[in-house]
Amino acid sequence: MGSSPSVPSVNPIPDQPVQRPRNLVIGLAGGIASGKSLVADMLGELGAKVIDSDKLVHRELADPVVTETYRSWWGPRVSTPEGCIDRAAVANIIFDDPGQRERMEKFLYPRLECRRRELMARYEADPSVTAVVLNAPLLYEAGLDSSCDVVLFVDAPRADRLDRAEKTRGWSEQEFDRRENLQKPLDKKRDAADHILVNNSSPGALRSQVRVLLDQLIADWLGPKRPR
Questions:
Q1: Are 115 and 164 in the same domain?
Q2: Global confidence as pTM
Q3: Dihedral of CA 139/106/54/214: which sign?
Q4: E strand or H helix at 153
């Protein structure tokens, strides 16, 4: 009987370094004054990095390019006595005129997206960061949900939301309804979300929901064999 063919030796494949997963991106959605910012603050306290669209807007409105553009469009009526952009005056213009709203969005939204991407890249490079939260009033309307791995819908009774809007923003019920009617219907947002947080009692109860859900989301995202 002939000898068996020799088997070529195989060099063992060296262990590859385990790369950490990219950051979990959590989007927040909900009705006006539902408590999205409160949830964002709680997530931030629990270690997530929060990208707040409202703060990005404030930053953009302080940029001379933006202020001069707005004044060229709408004149001195959008300026405060101190020379800053009056956000309430701008809101009155764009909510009454869809064309003006579209013009503002085409100008401002790309600038906000640039800022958002800068922050995302910074957090992605930080090994201590596991989760990033996108807190945007118009998450679905602006298409930001496509950048999220999971969306949380903050649900609160209309009466509670209206009461908060009246107390914190000075809105009448008519103004509340006018603005909410310009957004995607709440039932559509709720149905599109991955998880629902119910904000109908105390901050402590909401915080407990947030803590449990965040722990679950991060555990699922990292997995048992995916160390940082």
A1: no
A2: 0.85
A3: positive
A4: strand 150-155
Closest CA to 99 of 78, 73, 75, 76: 73
Vertex 20: Cα angle to 18 and 24 (nearest 5): 155
**Cβ atoms of residues 51 and 132 within 8 Å:** yes
The domain of 140 spans 23-48+130-221
Query: Is 84 inside a domain boundary?
Result: yes
Do the beta carbons of residue 213 and residue 221 sit within 8 Å? no
Please say which residue of 129, 147, 173 terminates a domain: 129
Q: Examine residue 2 and state whether it is found in any structural domain, yes or no.
A: no
pLDDT tens digits, the chain, 228 residues: what are they? Answer: 455 444 444 444 444 444 456 899 999 999 999 999 999 999 999 999 999 999 999 999 999 999 999 999 999 999 999 989 999 999 999 988 999 999 999 999 999 999 999 999 999 999 999 999 999 999 999 999 999 999 999 999 999 999 999 999 999 999 999 999 999 999 999 999 999 999 999 999 999 999 999 999 999 998 864 444
Do 139 and 208 have their domain in common? yes
Q: Are residues 116 and 136 in the same domain?
A: no
Q: Which residues contact 86 (CB under 8 A, 6 or more apart)?
A: 77, 78, 79, 80
Whether residue 41 is found in the same domain as residue 62: no
